[in-house]
Amino acid sequence: MDIATLLGIFLGIGSILWGMMGGGSLSTFVEFRSMAITFGGAIAGTLIAFPFSRVVQTFKIAGKIFQKQEQDPESVIATLVAFAERARRDGLLALEDEAQHLPDPFLQKGIQLVVDGTDPELVRSILEIELSFLEERHKQGQRLFETIGFLAPAFGMIGTLIGLIQMLKQLQDPSTVGPNMAIALITTLYGALLANLVCIPTANKLGVRSSEEILLKEVIIEGILSIQAGENPRIVREKLEAFLSPVRRNNIGDVSLSQEERVVVGSGR
After folding, report:
1. Does residue 5 sit in the same domain as residue 92?
2. Which of 8, 23, 36, 163 is most buried, judging by how many CB atoms fall within 10 Å of its CB?
3. Which domain holds residue 170?
4. How far apart are CA 86 and CA 227, in angstroms?
5. 47 and 157 belong to one structural domain
6. Are residues 155 and 245 both part of a single domain?
7. Do 140 and 14 share a domain, yes or no?
8. How far apart are CA 209 and CA 221, in angstroms?
9. How many percent of the chain have pLDDT more than 90?
10. Are residue 17 and residue 136 in the same domain, yes or no?
């Protein structure tokens, strides 16, 4: 579970609720017509802008903002170094059985291509194409939340205009001024909250998760090609560590084959 996301949500909601309660009852800020205009309008605009299947799929993967990265680059580098040691000692064919137990399909696919004797340039091309389409799918999810974040304040402004029009049209009746002004102001509030507390932060966090996953895949590609080239395991490690910051490099430490073999096959055997 990602602590930063949960902390941000609780801190944001708590701060806003505290501010609302300081001036009276929370029921003052509940206006269902304003909710209908803001949320309904933003969702309607999003459905018009994106295919329905894409909307459903994106909301399903939005839960990733609460999750930590499944694999970290340090453990992946350690695994690749172990494969490099095994390949130099027993040959590339010795990796085939090990590859079947890898939890990462991308890494498994790359190792299998190498074992099958695929040309290095073709291996790079296949994996980079898959990585490119992965990045594009991630960008579509980010754009969807960015679109909602853009539309929500706009529909909040539409609600403000509706409330002002109704207020001015019935200005002769003082009893209607308060309710219509409430719609005008609260709708803008809902739009700002939906955009700035939910949608824009979610799009940014999905972008962070995408960058982390892409970095991981790039490490895997370079590691697989190094293994195929028969490079020294220490050179492989030095090359892959270049993807990481100096602080994170220290977390890898010295890698021995026996340790990493247990990591690679521990879940599969």
Report:
1. no
2. 163
3. 33-63+71-269
4. 9
5. yes
6. yes
7. no
8. 19
9. 34
10. no
pLDDT at 121 over 80: yes
More confident site: 40 or 245 = 40
Helical packing angle, 105-115 and 120-169, nearest 10°: 160
Q: Which two tokens stand for residue 45?
A: 């605009």
Structure tokens at 201: 């932060």
CA angle 111, 114, 119 (to 5 degrees): 145
* Residue 181 pLDDT level (bands cut at 50, 70, 90): confident
Tell me the residue length of the chain: 269
The reply to whether 6 and 42 lie within a common domain is: no
A 10 A CB-CB count for 98 gives 21
Considering only CA atoms, which of 177, 197, 217 is closest in space to residue 225? Answer: 217
What does pLDDT average to over the chain?
A: 84
Place of tokens 């200005």: 171
Answer yes or no: do 80 and 127 share one domain: yes
